[in-house]
Write a structure and sequence with these properties.
Blueprint: H1 17-27, H2 30-37, H3 44-54, E1 57-58, E2 73-75, E3 78-80, E4 84-86, H4 100-109, E5 115-116, H5 124-130, E6 136-139, H6 145-158, E7 163-166, H7 176-180, H8 211-216, H9 223-232, E8 237-242, H10 245-253, E9 258-261, H11 275-286, E10 292-295, H12 301-309, E11 314-317, H13 319-351, E12 364-365
Parallel strand pairs: 4-11, 5-6, 6-7, 7-8, 8-9, 9-10, 10-11
Antiparallel strand pairs: 1-12, 2-3
Helix pairs in contact: 1-13, 4-5, 4-13, 10-11, 12-13
């Protein structure tokens, strides 16, 4: 396949994450770009994920003491220099011949953990070797428990530090823009970590039954499956796709170590709320000391700041890593993350917050129309 020509140096006009998106849109073949960029159905949620951040302002403060300032945080005894991780994104060889290997190298260069997707286009062991120690693995539970267990053991043996099990897409939403573009995986790109995984067993449906409700959902993971996974997993175990406070409470009580508040980047249920809007309620449900991450719509360091102020411990960055990868490979990924971290530091400085623990709800202002 013909890959976009990656830059060997970063042009001076690539100065923010949106610049990477605009540049990549001109480089990535249209069907692949539409698959990466699109949301579900009418894409209202895709846009609301981003717009939700604009509904909050940050209050500048003066004369704060920055002698002991830093943006470091700790998650599951792992020190992060900034509260940012790369979210799991599938099929990265669509835009670069090295795919996830280059993304891992770029993330390692700026000390940002990468959450590697089950649907990666490179072997999870090779990605672990390409990056720095400290990456996490995202697990899609398979139809057979032995296949899920095999993926889990491979991740443990390869040195991944945490497991993120995604539960919010037992069935994919209808991604109409991707359908219209005629997207299909090319032969050169495959889900190599599932090469030996058995396909889901066929289910005999009766007349009038739904392939979704009575077929796919009948085989979807349930609480018993999650309890089994918790017993099998020796690493910190997080659940991704949490959007309801009651689910958060139940997952916490079930021994899950942390949650990722996410609506799958607006690619699942178009009528769902945004992660940012649900963050305060979920934080209230699980208490102050329980790890919460979120993704969805983050494009600026000020967005990271707002998520932290509403209760997140860290955030995950999804699509921008692919735009940066298509633009300049590992160099682009590292530069994109450096831009985001620099913006977070500038926002902290201007908001008078020398450390992450000083970023609280009172740092935000919700504007109201002037009378």
């Amino acid at each position: 396949m013909d890959y976009p020509k990656t830059l060997q140096a970063i042009p001076p006009d690539l100065v923010c994450l949106d610049d990477y998106e605009q540049f990549a849109a001109q480089q990535i073949p249209s069907p692949y770009f539409e698959y990466i960029h699109s949301g579900v159905a009418d894409e209202r949620l895709l846009h609301r994920n981003r717009d939700s951040f604009s509904q909050l302002d940050i209050l500048p403060r003066l004369l704060r003491d920055f002698h002991d300032a830093n943006s470091a945080t700790s998650l599951f005894d792992q020190i992060l220099s900034a509260p940012i991780l790369l979210a799991p994104v599938a099929h990265q060889r669509l835009v670069h011949p090295d795919g996830e290997l280059a993304t891992a190298r770029g993330a390692a260069a700026v000390d940002v953990p990468m959450v590697v997707s089950t649907l990666a286009s490179q072997r999870l062991e090779d990605i672990a070797r390409a990056g720095a120690p400290g990456n996490w693995f995202q697990l899609y539970l398979q139809a057979r428990r032995e296949d899920s267990l095999s993926l889990l053991r491979r991740a443990e043996d390869a040195g991944y530090r945490a497991i993120v099990v995604t539960l919010d897409t037992p069935v994919n939403g209808l991604r109409n823009r991707s359908q219209r573009a005629g997207f299909a995986l090319p032969p050169e790109v495959s889900e190599v970590n599932l090469a030996n995984v058995a396909p889901p067993p066929g289910r005999q449906l009766h007349p009038g039954q739904s392939i979704v409700l009575n077929g796919i959902m009948a085989d979807a993971p349930d609480w018993e499956t999650l309890h089994w996974l918790r017993q099998q997993c020796s690493l910190p175990l997080l659940v991704k796709g949490v959007m309801h406070p009651d689910d958060a409470r139940e997952l916490q009580a079930a021994g899950i170590d942390g949650l990722v508040i996410s609506n799958h980047g607006g690619r699942s249920l178009d009528a769902a709320p945004t992660p940012l809007s649900m963050l305060p309620a979920i934080r209230g449900a699980v208490g102050n000391d329980y790890p919460l991450l979120m993704d969805g719509g983050i494009r600026r360091g000020s967005d990271v700041f707002k998520a932290l102020a509403l209760g997140a411990n860290a955030v995950m960055i999804g699509r921008p890593q692919v735009y940066a990868l298509a633009t300049a490979g590992a160099l682009g990924v590292a530069h994109m993350l450096k831009l985001l971290i620099d913006e977070l530091h500038i926002t902290m400085a201007l908001a008078g917050c020398p450390r992450l623990d000083t970023i609280q709800r009172h740092c935000l202002h919700t504007p109201r129309p002037l009378l």
